[in-house]
Each structure stands twice: as structure tokens, then as C-alpha cells.
Amino acid sequence: MTTPRIRLVLALAGALTVAASTAACTHPQAPVPRPPVTATTTPASPTQAIHAPTFTLTIDVEPARAGTNVVNMYATTSVGREVAVQEWSVTATSSAGGQPITAGVVKLAGGHAVAHIGLSSAGVWRFSFTLRLSDTDEETVYTDVRIS
Q1: What is 42-147's CATH number, 2.60.40.1930, 2.40.50.100, 3.50.50.60, 2.40.50.140?
Q2: 140 neighbors 128 (Cβ within 8 angstroms)
């Protein structure tokens, strides 16, 4: 025999279950924005790996000197498979201030792209890499690179 209190608890639990399952079925969930991932907080070498939740981005900045630099970018999964990147975006901002510089990016393969960027001075530059993996999935990662 159930008491009125137990019947009330069971009725509320049932109502919450129905409401939750109805909401999940009728309202598609929008992608949850992820916080940006930063590889380093101190200037790093021109070659480094930046880990994000859905990929690892390996970058190589050459010659890592003031002037025109080439940035090779490789996106892989946690098990080393190439990630199919739909769109790449690269910017760099000097620690001395100023406006961000946008790099021209050329996609070479699904998970490999190269960017050309003119860096006006030596110092620490904050690079921002935005990778669009699908129509709804995009992540941005950051790292500091010392330019001589």
C-alpha cells in the first residue's frame, strides 16, 4: 500500500521524465560553444602542438623572424588521423599592441593548410587559429610565438 506522499513523489518523477524526454525530442540542441584553448602562456618555439577537445593542431612558423613568415598547420585526431577541416583562419597580434594581422590561408589537404603572414617586428606574437570542422562545429585555439 502506498501513502499519499509516495504517490505524489512518483507522479512528479513521471511528469519530469515525460517533460524531459519531450523537450529532448522536440528541440534540437544547438552546438555548445567551447572555450578557446591556449597552448602556452609564455613564448614558445615556432614549432608546437596545440590540443583542443576535437583535434590537435601542430604548427610550424618559419623563419620566425620579422617579415614574411610561412605557417604550416596540421590538424589531427587524438589517435593521429587527419581531421577534415572545412575552413581555416589565422591571425596574429603583437604583444606590443596594434591591430591583428590576418594571414592568407591555402588548404592543401583535409587536415593540412599553409598560411603566409607578414609580421612587422620582433617580439612575442599571439597567434589565433580558427578551424571550422562542419557547418556547426568551429573551434579557436591560441598560442604565443617568439619572433626574432
Answers
A1: 2.60.40.1930
A2: yes
Residues of the chain where predicted confidence (pLDDT) is lower than 50: 2-4, 6, 8-35, 38-42
pTM score? 0.70
Angle at the Cα of 140 from the Cα atoms of 117 and 122, rounded to 5 degrees: 35
140 in helix, strand or coil?
strand
* Residue 79 and residue 95 in contact, taking contact as beta carbons nearer than 8 Å: no
pLDDT at 133: 94
Integer CA distances (angstroms), 77 to 52, 53, 88, 100, 117, in order: 10, 9, 16, 28, 26
